Amino acid sequence: MKKPAAISIKQSARRATIGTITPGMVAIAIGWQSRCLHLIAYLEKTPNSDDFEAVSDIAGEIISDFPDYFTKTKEECRLIDNQNAEYDEQLECLINLK
Question: What is the pTM of this model?
Answer without folding.
Answer: 0.89
